[in-house]
Amino acid sequence: MTTDTFYPGLISDPTTTDGNALRQAADISWDNLQGGVGTSGTPHPSSLVFQLRSDGGSSDWFRMYRIFINFDTNTLPKGINISAATVRVWGELKDNGLGISPALNVFSSSSAFNSTVVAADYDKVGDTPFATAIAYADWTASAWNDFELNAAGIAAIVSGGVTNFSIRESNYDAPDIAPPWSSNLECNMWMAGTGGGAGHRARLIVTYGANFPSSTVVRVTGIRRIYRPGVYRMLLSLGEISDMGDIAGHRDYVGPDPFDPKTWLDPLLWDIPLKEADRIKRERNREDEDGRRSPILPPDEPTMPQPERIPRTGRAAVPFAGDDPERQPLWKPRRRLPFPAPPPSFEPKVVLSAPKVFKETVIDPIVDFVKSFFSSWGW
């Protein structure tokens, strides 16, 4: 597993930012405050602010802030499996003058820009919690406060891009529930922004690893090793495979790439080289279920998967390498292939003619030499 940390950009690197969006108006209803449009936005503030303030009129409200953080996750690799993620913010202050004990949580954001925060971003927030809320009593000033992201929050992280989150009040604002009202009071929960420097800016901490398909190989039931002169091959007998197309269910892996069909063999062809196995499979495919001859596949035709075979009466099914009877295909017994012809250098006629050649090239010259030797002495 690898753990990386990502940040919003500083003022000197404004490709991404954090900021506050605000709606403020005198003597407005809760529905108007919560569901209205923003009146201002501030990028790169020194403090990220949640604040809710009431007005003097009966049940009227005056101001509410929402927080936006755009994390630069451009260097987060694509195609990974994220196991855990945390949004960490530095608490600065809190007060509960309004007496409603607010809570904060992380939500989605569809802000218009990655590099700034504008008034129009105020209502570009989601209402699905991305973490466990931090209650007012648990919010710590002058310390780190962690939002551990749930599955929805992890899914919102963008590899190779920008991850946009918002932080808003989760007891009243997100579910749109009017809080208890008191005249001209406010509550606050503040955290450090990028305007205050890099030291305490928000951060997204991601733990991840390589992403392997969860349903590719479900069960390995056996390992077979083959040793031949100059050849070492390890075969895995897979009891259940999925997401493998025409090689699903009854093939053996001979490596190195499990997603390359050329590295999978029919269990009946374990000891046969891959090219020869393809030729044999084409030969088998020439005969259909009733024993009739089918057209021969052209040489460049891809090998087709073997159909499920139903055994004839009195013949037992031949299971593949698995122990689950519900998943074992049935195979019609196949004829044995003829043994390949020996190479020309070992043909019997060549072997049988060896004595004659030896006689003509070795024995006969010796006999002729002996005869000529003795004849020269008059014998």
How is this fold's topology laid out?
Layout: E1 2-6, E2 18-28, H1 30-35, E3 40-43, E4 47-54, E5 61-73, E6 80-96, E7 103-108, E8 134-135, E9 143-148, H2 151-155, E10 161-169, E11 186-192, E12 203-210, E13 217-228, E14 231-241, E15 252-253, E16 264-265, H3 274-284, H4 348-352, H5 354-376
Antiparallel strand pairs: 1-12, 2-3, 2-5, 4-5, 4-11, 5-10, 6-9, 6-11, 6-12, 7-8, 7-10, 13-14, 14-15, 15-16
Describe the structure.
With 379 residues, the chain is α+β, with helices and mostly antiparallel strands. It folds into two domains: 2-210, no CATH class; 217-327, no CATH class. The chain has five helices and 16 strands. Strands 1, 2, 3, 4, 5, 6, 7, 8, 9, 10, 11 and 12 form a twelve-stranded antiparallel beta sheet that branches. The chain has a four-stranded antiparallel beta sheet with strand order 13-14-15-16, with no helix packed on it. 26% of the residues are buried. Residues 214-219, 238-273, 293-304, 310-322 and 346-352 have low confidence and may be disordered.
What key phrases describe this protein's structure?
32% strand; 4-stranded antiparallel sheet; alpha+beta; 16 strands; 12-stranded antiparallel sheet; 5 helices; rod-shaped; 379 residues
Quick gist of this model?
The protein is α+β, with helices and mostly antiparallel strands and 379 residues long. The protein is built from 5 helices and 16 strands.
